[in-house]
Design brief:
Helix content: 55-70%
Family: Belongs to the cation diffusion facilitator (CDF) transporter (TC 2.A.4) family.
CATH architecture of the largest domain: Up-down Bundle
Distance between the termini: 44 Å
Radius of gyration: 25 Å
Largest sheet: 4 strands, mixed
Number of domains: 2
InterPro entries: Cation_efflux (IPR002524), Cation_efflux_CTD (IPR027470), Cation_efflux_CTD_sf (IPR036837), Cation_efflux_TM (IPR058533), Cation_efflux_TMD_sf (IPR027469), CDF_Transporter (IPR050291)
Strand content: 5-15%
Number of strands: 4
Membrane topology: Multi-pass membrane protein
Subcellular location: Cell membrane
CATH class of the largest domain: Mainly Alpha
Shape: elongated
Number of helices: 8
GO molecular function: cadmium ion transmembrane transporter activity; ferrous iron transmembrane transporter activity; zinc efflux antiporter activity
Strand order of the largest sheet: 3-2-1-4
CATH superfamily of the largest domain: Cation efflux protein transmembrane domain
């Protein structure tokens, strides 16, 4: 089984474990702030399942109906995660408003905070695993899942300190007020996940640093050609699409042009293993005298 899929399955297991702990913490205390934490964890489970499905779909090879592969499935998953995060935030806001209007004392607060702290620690460790692995292997679904968990960890820490202050001061309205702050933080997290995922769905170009590396690699490896123009890039999950026009002298044979293309593709795939490259060879009268000049 692919390691990425194993990690996605691990997210589901961790999500259920954390959800159980946070629900238990809420049951012990009756805290609306801890309830908000538990509600967010239900989204964690749902988005982890969505990420697993998206990763499995994205891993499918290209077929007749999807000649460019299924890479964008991960972006669709990340958008779904963002929407679900926002829905969770709205539910939390509703509970926070009810609690603010009718505040109540907390039951067994210290025990509940200890249980919630354990859940947050588990989330923090798994968040690091998801983000580091997702970035290393260019998996938008895992990175989105990890960032969601990161916002969960941050809000959980804030909730823990806030509930502790509410216990010490006896200010009961602080508990629902904290839940409202958690909801705002979650809304911001959901918005960021959606906007970053939409950039991939809209065929956003690679980063400036990667584009510079691509241009330098082409320039170094295209000996025998004259120039490269109309360079275009986009990314979709793990795949990076690169296409450009390469101008060669009119005396260049098909075999010679093909050898130049192979050399460029080999060098680019060494730096970008999941690169999908398309090169259109043109005669020298098609030169635009712009783009990438060959060294």
């Amino acid at each position: 089984m692919d390691r990425t899929i194993r990690i996605a399955i691990g997210s589901i297991v961790v999500g259920f474990a954390v959800l159980g702990l946070k629900a238990f913490a809420w049951w012990l205390t009756g805290s609306i702030a801890l309830l908000s934490d538990a509600l967010e964890s239900t989204v964690n489970v749902a988005t982890a399942i969505a990420a697993l499905v998206a990763i499995r779909v994205a891993a499918r090879p290209a077929d007749a109906n999807h000649p460019y592969g299924h890479h964008k499935a991960e972006f669709m998953s990340a958008v779904l995660e963002g929407v679900m995060i926002i829905i969770a935030a709205l539910l939390i806001m509703n509970e926070a408003w009810k609690g603010f209007m009718a505040p109540r004392a907390l039951d067994a607060p210290l025990e509940g905070l200890l249980v919630n702290g354990l859940a947050s620690a588990i989330n923090g460790i798994w968040c690091y695993v998801l983000i580091s692995y997702g970035r290393r292997h260019r998996s938008p679904a895992l990175v989105a899942d990890g960032r969601h968990l990161l916002s969960d960890v941050v809000s959980s820490v804030g909730v823990t300190f806030g509930v502790l202050i509410a216990i010490l001061t006896g200010w009961q309205k602080l508990d629902p007020a904290l839940a409202g702050l958690v909801a705002i933080n979650i809304l911001w997290s959901g918005w960021k996940v959606i906007t970053e995922s939409l950039s991939g769905l809209l065929d956003e170009a690679v980063s400036d640093d990667m584009l510079k590396m691509i241009r330098e690699t082409i320039s170094d490896q295209a000996t025998g050609a004259l120039e490269v123009h109309d360079l275009r890039t986009r990314h979709a999950g793990k795949a990076t699409f690169i296409d450009f026009h390469m101008v060669v002298p009119g005396t260049t044979t098909v075999d010679e042009a093909h050898e130049i293309c192979d050399r460029i593709e080999t060098a680019l795939k060494k730096n970008i293993p999941q690169a999908l490259i398309t090169i259109h060879v043109e005669p020298e009268n098609k030169a635009k005298h712009q783009g990438v000049l060959v060294l």
